[in-house]
């Protein structure tokens, strides 16, 4: 039982949920270490959405609005942490949702699909094919899902797959608290923010964007600039801590 007045209550609740999902086979044990790294970066950005993240999320909403067949790619950590946010995002944007796993087994695919569906997400199904030139199972995509998508939102991604999706001509948006990761640097657009906060920002922005603002955000998109700004926000936070 985690006391609700504990100063790290939210973080402890999230860790407990991930541990439970790992015991149930939804989250891979390796996913727990990825979460630990993300927590460290969240501390560095002050555990809140920065101005840069807000701008990136609005730009993501603008790109998704313009896409013809956008797909959200979900892995175990994303399902465990943000199933409800995925459902709200899908309701707002109409995006298709496909499960894609590094540690892929039929059992894990079924468990993650069931978890998402329990929270109101409509999950694509069908026979996955090895459509990306990757040696691991993240190459497997549905031809009518990620295979034909012009835009893929890949939260908590690895750099290889992000690069392969870009090389296949797709617009790739990622959510990644680490602005130094290969994924962050390879994506078309990176939202340096915690997963659930970033989803909420994109979903809110999707409905509130005026066409003029959306055009301006897409025209002005410069991911290198956004990443430099995110790193700058971390550096300034560290400088304040030294005072
Ligand atoms: P890369 O190949 O991109 O350099 P990696 O393969 O080492 O990165 P992974 O282990 O796949 O990275 O982890 C995915 C990324 O997701 C990490 O950079 C981590 O910071 C980020 N991440 C994990 N959990 C969250 C979260 N809850 N919110 C935002 N980002 C997260």
What secondary-structure arrangement, pairings included, does this model have?
Blueprint: H1 9-24, H2 29-45, H3 51-66, E1 70-74, H4 76-93, E2 96-99, H5 106-118, E3 129-130, E4 140-141, E5 151-153, H6 159-167, E6 171-175, H7 182-186, E7 189-191, H8 195-208, H9 211-219, H10 223-242
Parallel strand pairs: 1-2, 1-5, 5-6, 6-7
Antiparallel strand pairs: 3-4
The chain binds adenosine-5'-triphosphate.
What features would you describe in this structure?
By secondary structure, this protein is an alpha/beta fold. The protein has one domain: Rossmann fold (3-Layer(aba) Sandwich), CATH 3.40.50. Helices cover 56% and strands 10% of the residues. It has ten helices and seven strands. The strands form two sheets. It has a five-stranded parallel beta sheet with strand order 2-1-5-6-7, with helices on both faces. The protein has a two-stranded antiparallel ribbon with strand order 3-4. The N and C termini lie far apart (37 Å). Adenosine-5'-triphosphate binds at residues 34-35, 37-38, 41, 77, 81, 156, 158-159, 175-178, 181-183, 194-195.
Strand arrangement across the biggest beta sheet: 2-1-5-6-7
How many individual domains? 1
CATH fold-type name:
Rossmann fold
**Structural class by SSE content:** alpha/beta
Tell me what portion of residues adopts beta-strand conformation: 5-15%
Attached small molecules: adenosine-5'-triphosphate
Q: Mean pLDDT, rounded to whole units?
A: 95
Helices, by number, come to 10
> CATH H-level name... which superfamily?
Phosphopantoate/pantothenate synthetase
Unreliably modeled segments: none
- Can you tell me the CATH architecture? 3-Layer(aba) Sandwich
Largest sheet: 5 strands, parallel
| Rg on CA atoms, Å | 17 Å
What letter string, H or E per element, gives the SSE order?
HHHEHEHEEEHEHEHHH
Name of the top-level CATH class: Alpha Beta
Helical residue percent band: 55-70%
């Amino acid at each position: 039982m985690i006391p609700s007045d504990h100063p790290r209550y939210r973080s402890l609740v999230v860790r407990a949920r991930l541990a439970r999902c790992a015991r149930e086979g939804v989250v891979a044990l390796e996913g727990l270490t990825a979460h630990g790294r993300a927590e460290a970066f969240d501390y560095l950005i002050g555990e809140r959405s920065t101005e840069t993240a807000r701008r990136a999320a609005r730009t993501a909403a603008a790109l998704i609005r313009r896409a013809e067949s956008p797909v959200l790619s979900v892995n175990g950590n994303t399902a465990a942490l943000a199933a409800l946010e995925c459902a709200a995002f899908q309701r707002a944007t109409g995006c298709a949702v496909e499960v894609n796993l590094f540690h892929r087994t039929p059992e894990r695919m079924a468990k993650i699909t069931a978890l998402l569906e329990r929270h109101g997400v409509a999950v694509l199904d069908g026979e996955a094919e090895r459509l990306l030139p990757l040696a691991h199972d993240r190459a497997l995509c549905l031809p009518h899902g990620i295979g034909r998508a012009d835009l893929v939102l890949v939260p908590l991604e690895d750099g290889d797959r992000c690069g392969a999706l870009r090389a296949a001509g797709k617009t790739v948006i990622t959510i990644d608290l680490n602005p130094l990761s290969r994924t962050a640097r390879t994506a078309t657009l990176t939202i340096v923010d915690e997963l659930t906060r970033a989803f909420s920002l994109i979903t809110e922005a999707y409905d509130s964007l005026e066409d003029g603002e959306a055009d301006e955000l897409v025209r002005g998109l410069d991911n290198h600039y956004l990443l430099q700004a995110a790193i700058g926000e971390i550096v300034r936070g560290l400088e304040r801590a030294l005072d």
